[in-house]
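Request: Have a read of the protein record below and say how the chain folds.
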Amino acid sequence: MSDDNVKTAEDKATELKTEPVVEEKTESAAEEKPVEQAKPAVEEKTDPAAKKKPVKKAKPAVEEKTDPAAKKKPVEKAEPAVEEKKAKPVAKEKKAKASGKKAKADKKEDEVGDDESAKVADPVEEPKVEEPKPIDPPKPQLAAPPAGSQFRATGRRKKSVARVYLTPGNGEITINKRPIENYFFRGIWRYMAVQPMLLTGTRDLFNVNVNVHGGGQTGQAGAVKHAISRALLEFNIDLRAPLKSAGFLTRDARTVERKKYGLAGARKRYQFSKR
């Protein structure tokens, strides 16, 4: 046991001796190493860091962040702004053109109005054109009808039938034993009845006695005209040309169409009801 204790004591002594030596060496090495490595480490770290880091980070940071933002954003906003600015002047130009056209049209209308007013104001300058006069067929020279002669004929119009008797006289006209002024109260009917005699110039050569029935006043006036025209042919055949050209010898066949069975009138139908 004593030997072990001695060994242990010796071992401890040796450990104690060795430990400080190691510590000294390590401390000295630690002191020497940092002194030798500190200078170059500081120089190496400071020089490249000061030179490289600002140069590498400053340039791309400025180029990447500022350039694309400055290029892309203004370009996107600038194009529509330019288009809007261009569109407005185009609309203004269109409006200006339209206003210019309207002004030109107004000027032309004013000029046309001035021309028309000038024309109206100066009708003397316009050349006068004479309207062609209707050429009347030559009237034959008529001799007075022989005394005691009588010329008769029948005329029709619509549903009216007139029998006319022409005798030498001074132009008196009686219809159904009444003067024409009392029978045909409208002037157009009186003129229609006497038209053939006015055309041929025989108004004052004959007295006219008429018997007419059927239809209305218009139809009866047409029937009297037709009958007098036919009676004048009995007096002188040379009157045919003027009477025929005027259409007095043609029987006007226009009449009212008859009513049909099952209809309201000639063509009119009753209202249709499906159910």
